[in-house]
Design brief:
Layout lengths: L1 H17 L3 H11 L3 E7 L12 E8 L3 H5 L2 H5 L4 E5 L13 E7 L8 H11 E12 L6 H17 L9 H7 L2 E10 L9 E9 L1
Parallel strand pairs: 1-2, 1-4, 2-3, 4-5
Antiparallel strand pairs: 5-7, 6-7
The chain binds S-adenosylmethionine (SAM).
Length: about 210
């Protein structure tokens, strides 16, 4: 009961604050400003990407958790473009095959229970010329010490962070799902603890 209170009433506010760390907001801008037209964002969270979609006409905001989406409503109401909330999971996307030009994920792939199924769905609904734009925290690519710490802490992180895995090799999962990178960069985000600091910034297309 206390855990349920934490998850429903406290965690969404913590998420809303942490995800506004300045270094993350800067990267959101870099990822999203070039996107035009219609977009599907998976794991829309509290709507922090809205200000950076400068050239977007309409946005499908896929967010399964109503307590988190509740904190997005005010941002959605002030959005200068059409936003449709889709209460669904990335593992079962309610979109036709090859129907979308742009799909966005910012710090969502860490939390999806069945990541490979979600990536197969993203692949299915993306047009052959479409782009999957993402920023995610990842398993550290080099440091064995940090990798071990990430694996050690992931069971706790999943409990306090609504299913968040610290140790996912997102690049590997994307390649397994038959994506190819058209842009890829690893960086350390300022203001984030070392165990979750290594980020993948990427744009991927269907092979
Ligand atoms: C760390 S938050 C990131 C929120 C937001 N993308 C951002 O950049 O601030 C992870 C988000 O993924 C969502 N999520 C969890 N499981 C999901 C699933 N199966 N499908 C889609 N989204 C999911 C959570 O509800 C949460 O909003």
């Amino acid at each position: 009961m206390i855990y349920q209170f934490y998850q429903r009433r406290i965690f969404p506010h913590l998420l809303n604050q942490v995800m506004q760390t300045a270094s993350l907001m800067d990267k959101r801008r870099e990822l999203l400003v070039p996107i035009e037209g219609e977009v599907l964002e998976i794991g829309f969270g509290t709507g922090l990407n809205i200000p950076f979609y400068g050239n977007v006409d309409s946005l499908y905001a896929l967010e399964p958790n109503p307590d988190i989406y509740h904190l997005a409503i005010e941002r959605v109401q002030h959005a200068p473009f059409y936003v449709k909330h889709v209460q669904s999971s990335a593992e079962k996307l309610p979109f036709a095959d090859a129907s979308l030009d742009h799909i966005v994920s910012t710090w969502t792939l860490c939390s999806i229970p069945n990541l490979d199924l979600a990536l197969a769905e993203i692949y299915r609904v993306l047009k052959p010329t479409g782009t999957f734009h993402l920023i995610e925290h990842v398993k550290h690519p080099d440091s064995v010490k940090l990798q071990s710490l990430q694996t050690l802490l992931t069971p706790i992180q999943k409990r306090i962070g609504d299913g968040c895995h610290l140790n996912r090799n997102i690049e590997h999962h994307l390649l397994q799902a038959q994506f190819k990178f058209v842009e890829k960069e690893y960086f350390d985000a300022d203001g984030i603890p070392a165990v979750a600091q290594k980020m993948l910034f990427a744009r991927a297309q269907k092979q």
